[in-house]
Write a structure and sequence with these properties.
With about 350 residues, the chain is α/β, with parallel strands linked by helices. It has two domains: about 300 residues, NAD(P)-binding Rossmann-like Domain (Rossmann fold), CATH 3.40.50.720; about 35 residues, no CATH class. Helix content is about 40%, strand content about 10%. It has a six-stranded parallel sheet with strand order 3-2-1-4-5-6, sandwiched between helices. Helix 2 runs parallel beside helix 3, helix 2 packs across helix 10 and helix 5 runs parallel beside helix 7. It is globular. About 45% of the residues are buried.
Length: about 350
């Protein structure tokens, strides 16, 4: 079991900072210092000077006993941490990867060391038929499907919108959002009551990112897709949620998803002055995939607050109560909408003006 760091760790060790600087230097040698990276280098986790922390930090409690999960992008980063944690909790895993066979094999070995079964599936989730292939292989190997984690994604930095080619735009949308449609369409016949779909969006979906225009747009689309799909499937007893991580140290950024200058200081502008680790965000996926979340899905109609997408990040500013987030894209009357805020101020003023002794 991984060594548990002190709770609320702020800042990075000298070794961690050096690992980021080395990763930035390696990226600079391979692609230069341009703000736009046309051809990203290999994104193998083994290539990183600073290894991401993926190992679960707590004993399992059987929360996913006997269940089967598909995890796209499961070969490295957040996907690897999710696979490891799900396996520790009792799930068999189908690990979907694009091209890094060695990383996928290592993740499968991690799952098997937890006493669970694993298969690896090489697939480009952005292809129309990929979803059918992934689901078919999973059901053939394990006989069922209970959880779908749509985690695969890609990003290509570009400071000028004119540098985003039509091919790049189509590719980013195909991987990040179209693939979710294809996989859900293929998985739906096999998902029964109590099944769960967990999508990976990003803090950029409401915060934005000037250098990741197409990527941020796809994350906004994932948020809308999650909300809408939840409304669509809740009568079938299928829960749909999303996790929106802040800056997490994975191969995505230091291996071509960000310019070298940003990699060198990645995550340092957050309140905790460091990026998160994959094993810190993986428990959010577990919570949304297991029966701990069965009482009321975040898309239910019971209260305005419950309609908010589940947003989780390492950093406190991204974990405010929904009614306090500076989120301007709310539906009318929802927490964060100006009418809702005006009503709250009026109620607070009425409480202050109420004579003493009157409840």
């Amino acid at each position: 079991m991984a060594k548990r760091p002190k709770a609320g760790k702020v800042g990075e060790s000298d070794k961690e900072k050096k690992g980021k600087r080395n990763a930035a230097a390696k990226l600079r040698r391979e692609v230069g210092s341009d703000e736009t990276i046309k051809t990203p280098p290999s994104d193998r986790e083994a290539d990183l000077d600073r290894a991401p922390k993926w190992e679960p930090r707590y004993p399992g409690s059987g929360r996913l006993d006997g269940k089967v999960a598909i995890v796209t992008g499961g070969d490295s980063g957040i996907g690897r941490a999710v696979c490891a944690l799900f396996a520790r909790e009792g799930a068999d895993i189908a690990i979907v990867y694009l091209e890094n066979k060695a990383d996928a094999a290592e993740t499968a070995a991690i799952v098997e060391r937890e006493g669970r079964r694993a298969i690896t599936i090489k697939a480009d989730v952005g292809k129309v038929k990929a979803g059918e292939t992934i689901v078919a292989q999973t059901v053939k190997a394990f006989g069922r499907l209970d959880i779908l984690v749509n985690n695969a994604g890609e990003q290509h930095p570009a400071e000028d919108i004119r540098d985003i080619s039509a091919a790049q735009l189509e590719r980013t949308f195909a991987t990040n959002i179209f693939g979710m449609f294809y996989l859900v369409q293929a998985a739906l016949p096999h998902l029964g009551k109590g099944a769960a779909i967990v999508n990976c969006t990003s803090v950029t979906m409401y915060q934005g990112s000037g250098g990741l225009l197409d990527y941020s747009a796809t994350k906004g689309a994932i948020t809308a897709f999650t909300r809408s799909l939840s409304e669509n499937l809740i009568d079938k007893g299928i829960r749909v949620n999303a996790v929106a991580p802040g800056p997490i140290w994975t191969p995505l950024n230091p291996r071509g998803g960000a310019p070298a200058e940003k990699v060198a200081s990645f995550g340092e502008s957050t309140p905790m002055k460091r990026p998160g680790e994959p094993d810190e965000v993986a428990p959010c996926f577990l919570f949304l995939a297991c029966d701990d979340r069965r009482l009321r899905p975040p898309q239910s109609r019971s209260t305005p607050r419950s309609r908010a997408i589940w947003r989780q990040s390492l950093h406190p500013r991204h974990a405010w109560p929904q009614s306090r987030r500076p989120y301007r894209c709310q539906a009318a009357g929802a927490p964060g909408d100006w009418r809702h805020r005006r009503r709250r101020r009026a109620h607070a003023q009425a409480d202050r003006d109420r004579p003493a002794g009157h409840g």
